[in-house]
Amino acid sequence: MAGTTAIEWTDATWNPVTGCTKISAGCDHCYAERFSERFRGVPGHPFEHGFDLMLRPERLLSPLSWKQPKMIFVNSMSDLFHKDVPFAYIDRVFDTMERAAWHTFQILTKRSSRMRDYVNKRYTGSIAPLHIWLGTSVEDGLRKSRIRHMQRMNASIKFLSVEPLIGAMGKMNLDGIDWVIVGGESGPKARPMNPDWVREVRDQCNDEGVAFFFKQWGGIRPKSGGRVLDGEEWNQLPIPNQFPDLLSVPAE
Hints:
globular; 5 helices; alpha/beta; 252 residues; seven-stranded parallel sheet
């Protein structure tokens, strides 16, 4: 069974890798680390080793058994493109995604240059399949180089997760970007998000015709502040997702 999730922009999670290490300020209060470390040392628990990076080969084929089409967030509890995940293992993850083409897979990384290099090598002279969406996290205006990495990637659907938004993004080059998610931080040490930072991103998306999704204001709990921005919810998705018949469903 797919992992259940309360994340608004996906249906399920799949974690063939768990654990990670911090790479930038957006990682400071990582929800996945906070959750995992609660179970460190608990014998037999999936997170017995806390947030240490671990490959989970027994999970590699799981999506093939989920017959109902789902939007699947890949590695919600890790980063597939962490430097300690071998490319040979990433190959196996992509092999499964390519076979399970009735699902839509969403891969999100902060290691955007490693993702770019891998994707461009795997899909030399072509682009990644339409049902594999590739994204990067950008938490403030200091990390916009990750956007450039995405723009130079052979991907069909490219997206940004501007979450947790901890500073103004400033002017963004959204050429080739299909979708932008914005959200505030949650947890006991959540940093506040200025509404004007969110509006700045939303307005640029609107001007450029990029789908915009506002996930949450954040706070002690993810739902603490709700997700209404200027009187409405923003739930836009990239256009291909609005045509589900493009995806084939496997025979039972």
